[in-house]
Design a protein that fits this description.
heterotrimer, A mainly alpha (300), B alpha/beta (583), C mainly alpha (238), A: 300 residues, mainly alpha, two-stranded antiparallel ribbon, two-stranded antiparallel sheet, extended, B: 583 residues, alpha/beta, 6-stranded mixed sheet, 20 helices, 20% strand, globular
């Protein structure tokens, strides 16, 4: 269904993956400091381009649009701010408000970007693995639904084509209502048919021992030393970031005057550094891997 | 003490407590035996198999017992049963539970609560044994039908059962995938010593390998013995089931009497094509074979004068970037003919049918229906009284709750609603059937099923109901997609008779099929579909007579002696002619 | 049946209790952090509110048939729009979920709603809206389950059921979901921007609700008949 991306971080355990993405997304939503937002966007985009190559461009276009809309619109609603750039419909359009809008827009873009990366890395397998750790029955039913969806999609098309081949699917002249009615007939056939299949599925489950006692979950992913190391590194960086944030590193006031912590502040600099390093982890891993293979190949 | 003992087992469903679906069945099966269970559809085969596993046993009244190594099945807990008795069902698709191949392999082990290490080992072992490594990480939906069934088998074998039960496991597969699958089952039996109990319609691949064949009829076991003895018994009793036996057995008994064989000498009875061939060679040793009496030799026409369907240089692909599926397909179907197209999976046969139905549009080439361009038909006209297709899976046509409503749906929305209302008010029996519906239902032999729910019918009955629905559009041209898939010999015969009747009425039939035996027997013309085009067309005797691999068992067994003898009857007749001449 | 009903009610009350404690706590927390955190606060609340449902589902040790039927029906809900390939914007998913809930009750309704949203998002990509969607569609199923039990929604009253469903879907998958966008896209909520977003969403929301309601109008009777037959044939009691 979805393609598999060649990426070193993707080979890590889903738990490692999810900690990283939760960190990136949640911190990204909390920090409204232009520098932090900028760091998040830049690294997010770098990672997205590593993953998707040229195809990231299309998403970039959408993000750009969103950024422009949010940043330009914000001053229209938010009239406060000291530096008036011009007046629109006799209402002030202020620099502070514009910068605030840009930060918000940037934040939205960063979040979208991280979700896009997340969607590349967290395949359904990984998602189900994580669910399996917490709520195994839900994880099993998710896997069953994912198994059924392509199957039922195929059946739906089969039914529609079977009906059209005996002239029961209406034609270009039939009304919209008629088409909706035909659609519901297809759905009802699909329901009867696939529920019969569901009963067989249940029989197959029980005949393979489902419900006969305690159940375990097969883990396709191993949790090895490199995962542990990476999680410890992430935990350390997160602690540093949160500590710095608590010390006011990410504070920013926009209205009525711009007032924010800047690089002179030790906590702010340290915070930005730790944040950047944390977000860059997958990129580092990819670079490391590239160098390793260069060396290995040169040895051959 | 036998491994599995079924002792005087009877069973009836709560809806009909007087009818014994299983009627005092007693069977003993030894450890490691390969047991084939056969009988007509509805004879109680599946019901019997379901009694061998408690979780699958339906509600109903049961007397007698099933013992496993001397212990009653009821006393064996479900977990042990799940691990020791594996059960492969008919439909490869519905049995699969999870979305990934690796997960499916591990599913049974998860249920039995195995630890990670054991699961890893077992899954790896099964993937290697069944050659699944290359698709281990795939989505199950990407697999072919044969691969899916193999996955089902592997995921059951991962639990290391002693007994493997298979209920018509290959009925939904094409012949090549089917024999692959059955070979794997045979391999499991030989290499692991797993006891096998299998039911099948097509006995060719399993009859000879069985240690024991059990034949059932109306809930009773009529015979259980080694294959040759069963053949003899069915012949002596003149049983209907004799017709389901592999071709060599039927041919042997077809000529046995004339040739003066000793009926008690079972050693000579051939079970496989190889044995049959040797036996025929011995029979004809040192004798002259009479040449084929030429029937009035109708020259094969390459071009039909007034074809019902005509394809000329039709090209199609699903997407611009995808490879062509139809590559200049060219062929004609003569009016009033039964034309069969055979060929492997994925050669584009079904796509070709879709093109004729206008589900897809070729990007080049000419497609004529009744001499008129397909595109020039309005969709209303095309499917009313001209063209219709019976889909591969009859279930895809069922939308209502009774067979009657299914048929009435074809009269149009308003008419159907009127009938439905009337039936609701006056009762089922009191509303007379529409005359057309009555005729078609009679023709398809489903008059007794009108009240049933379409999904409660057997495969063959569903097939005929779907056909009736299709016939209500009064097509002049009928397209059939794999019409014999999953239905047994008796239903096939019934189906063929309906086709013959339609043909008499002048209906042109184009079918696509894997079923070589069926095409050989009933088609007027057979074409080979390969790589997006029809390679050769000919009459069935010439077509199959010229093929050496893609042909019937009877032909493969006799081709070194006779030309163009393709059905069992052909071969028997030619043998008899010869034997007559020696006298 | 009574047992499962009781469990659902327990989940419901636990959920209410969680919300009663958690909502003020979260609001206070977000107040401490300053503005701009409404979204995160809301997501925390929703996850907390969903936990009892998932836990009670897990604890009820669903048997194979229940699991398989729920999986099949949820999958049908997710792909229901494939059947309406002619009408690209026609998405009757919520309609199918309501019918599942009417037949199998609030718990199944919640699960199918929430699961169908997770699954759609697994297929089409997760986004910041995932928890909101799960919660909203879960709630549609849950409420429809209760309305079905109290016969307000019933296959005997097709038109009433269609109208009630229309309202339910419009409020929950329309207005409530748009609130998510409000939280996401604006800083401190101002009335103007909120109204702009709600107005912008009104056309797709109406289409969506209409699709679900039409789907129920046409499908309710046959769909319930199919499910009732299934229950009868296999002796299911859910």
């Amino acid at each position: 269904m979805r393609e598999i991306y060649k990426d070193e971080f993707a080979t890590y355990n889903p738990i490692t993956n999810i900690i990283y993405f939760l960190g990136a997304i949640i911190l990204g939503m909390f920090f409204i400091h232009p520098v932090f937002v900028g760091v998040s966007i830049i690294i997010g985009l770098i990672y997205l381009f590593i993953l998707k190559k040229k195809r990231a461009l299309r998403e970039l276009l959408f993000m750009l649009l969103m950024f422009v809309v949010i940043s330009v619109i914000n001053p229209v609603f938010n009239l406060l701010g000291a530096t008036v750039l011009f007046r629109l419909f006799n209402r002030p359009y202020t620099l502070e408000s514009l910068i605030y809008g840009m930060t918000l827009g940037g934040m939205a873009v960063a979040i979208l970007c991280w979700f896009a990366c997340y969607n590349c890395i967290m395949t359904s397998d990984k998602f189900i693995y994580i669910f399996g750790k917490i709520i195994p029955s839900v994880s099993l039913i998710l896997s069953m639904i994912l198994r059924l969806i392509p199957n039922l999609t195929k059946k739906t098309k089969q039914i529609a084509s079977a009906r059209s081949c005996i002239g029961m699917a209406g034609d270009s002249s039939s009304s919209r209502m008629e088409k909706v009615r035909n659609g519901t007939l297809v759905l009802s056939t699909l329901t009867s048919w696939s529920l019969e299949g569901g009963i067989i599925m249940a029989d197959s489950m029980r005949s393979r021992g489902y419900g006969s006692g305690k159940r375990t979950t097969f883990a396709k992913y191993r949790f090895d030393a490199r995962n542990l190391v990476l999680i410890l590194v992430m935990a350390f960086l997160l602690t540093v970031i949160i500590f710095c944030a608590a010390k006011g590193a990410t504070q920013a006031e926009y209205i009525p005057y711009l007032m924010m912590s800047w690089f002179g502040d030790i906590y702010m600099s340290l915070g930005v550094l730790a944040y950047a390093v944390f977000l860059l982890i997958p990129v580092f891993l990819d670079i490391k891997e590239m160098i390793k293979w260069r060396i290995l190949r040169s040895k051959i | 003490m036998a491994h599995i003992t079924i002792k005087d087992l009877s069973f009836s469903y709560p809806v009909d407590p007087d009818r014994l679906v299983l009627d005092h069945v007693s069977v003993d099966i030894e450890q490691g035996q390969y047991v084939t269970l056969c009988g007509k559809s509805g004879c109680g085969k599946t019901t019997l198999l379901n009694q061998l596993k408690t979780v699958l046993t339906p509600n109903g009244k049961r007397t007698g017992e099933v013992l496993l190594d001397g212990v009653s099945l009821d006393q064996i807990d479900l977990r042990t049963q799940a691990a020791t008795i594996g059960y492969v069902m008919q439909d490869p698709d519905s049995q699969i539970v999870t979305d990934k191949v690796w997960h499916e392999l591990a599913f049974g082990l998860e249920n039995l609560g195995f630890d990670q290490r054991t699961m890893r080992t077992r899954v790896a072992e099964m993937a290697s044994y069944f050659g699944i490594q290359s698709w281990f990480h795939k989505d199950v939906e990407e697999l072919s039908g044969g691969q899916k069934q193999l996955l089902n088998l592997a995921s059951i074998m991962a639990m290391q059962p002693n007994i493997l039960i298979l209920d018509e496991p290959t009925s939904q597969l094409d012949p090549i995938a089917a024999s692959d699958f059955l070979n794997t089952v045979r391999k499991i039996n030989l290499e692991l010593g797993t006891t096998i109990i299998i039911t099948e319609h097509r006995l060719e691949d399993i009859f000879h390998a069985s240690d024991k064949v059990i034949v059932m009829e109306k809930g009773k076991v009529i015979v259980q013995d080694e294959p040759k003895a069963v053949g003899r018994y069915l012949k002596d009793e003149n049983s209907e089931m004799f017709a389901a036996l592999p071709a060599p057995v039927q041919i042997y008994y077809g000529v046995a009497k004339e040739a003066g064989f000793d009926m008690d000498d079972l050693k000579r009875v051939p079970l496989t094509v190889r044995e049959g061939r040797t036996w025929l060679s011995e029979l004809f040793e040192g004798k002259e074979v009479l040449p084929l009496k030429e029937k009035e030799d109708v020259p094969v026409k390459d071009v039909e004068e007034d074809p019902a369907i005509s394809l000329k240089d039709v090209w199609f692909r699903y997407d611009r970037d995808l490879p062509d599926v139809l590559k200049g397909t060219t062929f004609d179907v003569g009016r009033g003919k039964i034309f069969a197209l055979v060929g492997g999976n994925g050669t584009g046969k079904s796509t070709m049918l879709k093109a004729i139905c206008r589900s897809i549009r070729p990007y080049r080439g000419k497609l004529l229906i009744d001499g008129k361009k397909l595109d020039s038909y309005k969709s209303g006209d095309l499917f009313k009284g001209k063209l219709a297709m019976l889909p591969q899976d009859p279930k895809s046509l069922f939308v209502k709750t009774t067979v009657r409503e299914e048929l009435e749906e074809m009269l149009g929305t308003k008419e159907a609603a009127r009938y439905e209302k009337e039936v609701e008010i006056k009762g089922f029996e009191n509303v007379p059937l529409d005359e057309r519906i009555r005729q078609v239902a009679e023709e398809c032999d489903i008059l007794h099923l009108l009240k049933s729910h379409p999904f409660d019918l057997s495969g063959g009955e569903q097939q005929r109901t779907a056909l009736a629905k299709v016939l209500l559009t009064e097509p002049k041209i009928l397209l059939l997609d794999e019409p014999t898939k999953g239905i047994d010999n008796f239903f096939k015969l019934q189906f063929a008779n309906i086709l013959r009747k339609l043909q008499e009425r002048g209906v042109t039939i184009l079918m696509v099929s894997h079923d070589v035996e069926f095409c050989a027997r009933y088609a007027d013309q057979v074409g080979m579909f390969f790589d997006g085009d029809v390679i050769t067309t000919n009459t069935p005797d010439k077509f199959f007579g010229q093929n050496s691999f893609y042909t019937t068992a009877a032909n493969r067994m006799s081709r070194h002696l006779f030309t163009n003898a393709i059905t069992d009857e052909d071969v028997i007749q030619r043998c008899l002619e010869n034997i007559q001449s020696w006298k | 049946m009574n047992k499962s009903k009781r469990k659902v009610n327990i989940a419901f009350w636990v959920s209410i209790a969680v919300m009663a404690v958690a909502i003020p706590a979260t609001v206070y927390f977000s107040y401490l952090l300053g503005d701009r955190n409404l979204y995160i606060a809301s997501v925390i609340i929703m996850i907390l509110a969903m936990v009892p449902f998932f836990v009670s589902f897990e604890g009820s040790k669903p048997d194979a048939r229940y699991l398989a039927i729920l999986a099949v029906l949820t999958a049908i809900a997710v792909i229901s729009r494939v059947a309406f390939i002619w009408l690209p914007s026609f998405k009757p998913m919520a309609g199918v979920i309501i019918m599942i809930a009417m037949s199998f009750g609030p718990q199944a309704g919640f699960m199918s709603g929430a699961l169908s949203m997770i699954v759609s998002n697994i297929i089409f990509g997760q986004g910041p809206w995932t928890p909101w969607q799960m919660f909203c569609y879960g709630l549609i199923g849950f409420i429809a389950g209760f309305l079905g039990r109290s016969r307000i929604l019933s296959e005997k009253h097709v038109i009433r059921t269609s109208i009630v469903s229309f309202i339910l879907v419009f409020i929950l998958s329309g207005l409530v979901l748009d609130t998510c966008s409000v939280f996401l896209m604006t800083s401190s909520i101002s009335w103007q921007s909120a109204i702009a977003i709600y107005l912008g969403g009104i056309v797709p929301n109406l289409t969506n609700s209409l699709a679900s309601s039409l789907c129920i109008f046409f499908l309710l009777k046959p769909f319930m008949a199919i499910l009732n037959r299934l229950k009868l044939k296999y002796g299911l009691e859910y």
